[in-house]
């Protein structure tokens, strides 16, 4: 399905991604982890062709993605939707119009200028919002929503493109633990129910372990780990993060687990009282 072969990106003297290779045989939910500057964003941007590789190839269903140009490249970008840490919505525009922006690639400039959307697209956008539990927010301006709701709008916009792959660059890094959990659960559900591949850069180990089938660890531009969450032991994690013996998983942890633990403790206390 997806084959990444010795993919490399250099910025001047700096090698951001260094001969990265991996292949995915069926839609999976993959987490990419590593410390800041390890090359995670650059890898995702190359997969989406937002950034050109310096060398190496990306094959999707046997097709060379690295060679696509013009309209073909744009078509790939819509098959391979991207979501970002900062949501990238149009703040003053209503939610449903933001979602409909996901259809821009297949609409004429004139239709776009006058915001002319086919009725079936509008219905579809609302269905997607409903699936993500935020249909009631459809008429509001995007900026009026919470961070977690905005990220779900961004996911809805991505789904509007009916993508085979969703690339998520630190999708929960700006969210509180509760919203982070809602967003990760939404991505997991989309992966399972629609059979779409999800590749998410995550800055926390526990999130990768909890939601992903496979974890890729990057260090200094290189892939230094590629395995299941079970294989991602503390020792391996220490290696990926290039940390010493004092490495603490808690330092890479979101508060989701802490939150769950607190809930569990509260329940236990309640049960014992
Ligand atoms: N446009 C650019 N120009 C120059 N150097 C860049 C550019 N983009 C990334 N880099 C460098 O490439 C390396 C990898 O960056 P990248 O953003 O991919 O890492 P990351 O793992 O995503 O980190 P973070 O989690 O902080 O986003 C870093 O050293 C970064 O400074």
UniProtKB/TrEMBL annotation:
GO function term, MF aspect, one: ABC-type phosphonate transporter activity
SMART domains with a match to the protein in the record: AAA (SM00382)
InterPro entries listed in its UniProt record: AAA+_ATPase, ABC_transporter-like_ATP-bd, ABC_transporter-like_CS, ABC_transpr_PhnC, MetN_ABC_transporter-like, P-loop_NTPase
One GO location term (cellular component): membrane
Transmembrane feature ranges: none
Domain ABC transporter, chain residue ranges per copy: 2-245
A Pfam family assignment: ABC_tran
Keywords: ATP-binding, Cell inner membrane, Cell membrane, Membrane, Nucleotide-binding, Translocase, Transport
Matching PANTHER family: AMINO ACID IMPORT ATP-BINDING PROTEIN (PTHR43166), PHOSPHONATES IMPORT ATP-BINDING PROTEIN PHNC (PTHR43166:SF6)
Protein name: Phosphonate ABC transporter ATP-binding protein
Biological source species: Ponticoccus litoralis
